[in-house]
Amino acid sequence: MSIDALKDQLPAFAKDVRLNLSTIGSDETLTAQQKYGLFVACGIATRNPEVRAALAAEAKPHLTPEAFTAAEAAATIMGMNNVYYRFVHLASNKQYGTLPAKLRMNIIANPGVDKTDFELWSLAVSAINGCGMCIDAHEAVLLKAGMPVEQIQTAVRYAAIIQSAAIALEAATLAA
């Protein structure tokens, strides 16, 4: 499956989502690795099998095996970190923030690809998962590395579009 096949599956009420998917498919704001890594990481983060498969198929020819694995790792590690750090941030007892997390996160230090790309994927997944603490942390790393805000915004826009495709597919099953 490809992005085009995914667009064809979207219901009529998701016309804007279809148009936005077309936009990210042809967008050249990011490097190919950044863009297609976002497809993989965000596709996984939606937890929707059709979206995940379509975006992985679209990305695979454009990524090295190492980059594909790193994008999968970004989605996976953020799945854990976003739950934990969202809790730490939102819990009324701020003592949790003083305790060691005791979570293995070695992949963040050595992702096997450019650290900036991995941070960008982690930021986008954190946006999908709604973890403000992780969003702030990854954005700070990206800004410190010199990534322009327009590229950071593009990554989050991709995450929003990809998540909306998953929601549209789920909503379409309600009508069936």
From TrEMBL:
<protein>
    <recommendedName>
        <fullName>Alkyl hydroperoxide reductase AhpD</fullName>
        <ecNumber>1.11.1.28</ecNumber>
    </recommendedName>
</protein>
<dbReference type="InterPro" id="IPR004675">
    <property type="entry name" value="AhpD_core"/>
</dbReference>
<keyword id="KW-0575">Peroxidase</keyword>
<dbReference type="InterPro" id="IPR029032">
    <property type="entry name" value="AhpD-like"/>
</dbReference>
<dbReference type="GO" id="GO:0045454">
    <property type="term" value="P:cell redox homeostasis"/>
</dbReference>
<feature type="domain" description="Carboxymuconolactone decarboxylase-like">
    <location>
        <begin position="98"/>
        <end position="174"/>
    </location>
</feature>
<keyword id="KW-0560">Oxidoreductase</keyword>
<dbReference type="GO" id="GO:0051920">
    <property type="term" value="F:peroxiredoxin activity"/>
</dbReference>
<comment type="function">
    <text>Antioxidant protein with alkyl hydroperoxidase activity. Required for the reduction of the AhpC active site cysteine residues and for the regeneration of the AhpC enzyme activity.</text>
</comment>
<dbReference type="GO" id="GO:0015036">
    <property type="term" value="F:disulfide oxidoreductase activity"/>
</dbReference>
<feature type="active site" description="Cysteine sulfenic acid (-SOH) intermediate">
    <location>
        <position position="134"/>
    </location>
</feature>
<dbReference type="GO" id="GO:0006979">
    <property type="term" value="P:response to oxidative stress"/>
</dbReference>
<feature type="disulfide bond">
    <location>
        <begin position="131"/>
        <end position="134"/>
    </location>
</feature>
<keyword id="KW-0676">Redox-active center</keyword>
<feature type="active site" description="Proton donor">
    <location>
        <position position="131"/>
    </location>
</feature>
<dbReference type="GO" id="GO:0032843">
    <property type="term" value="F:hydroperoxide reductase activity"/>
</dbReference>
<dbReference type="Pfam" id="PF02627">
    <property type="entry name" value="CMD"/>
</dbReference>
<comment type="similarity">
    <text>Belongs to the AhpD family.</text>
</comment>
<dbReference type="InterPro" id="IPR003779">
    <property type="entry name" value="CMD-like"/>
</dbReference>
<dbReference type="InterPro" id="IPR004674">
    <property type="entry name" value="AhpD"/>
</dbReference>
<keyword id="KW-1015">Disulfide bond</keyword>
<keyword id="KW-0049">Antioxidant</keyword>
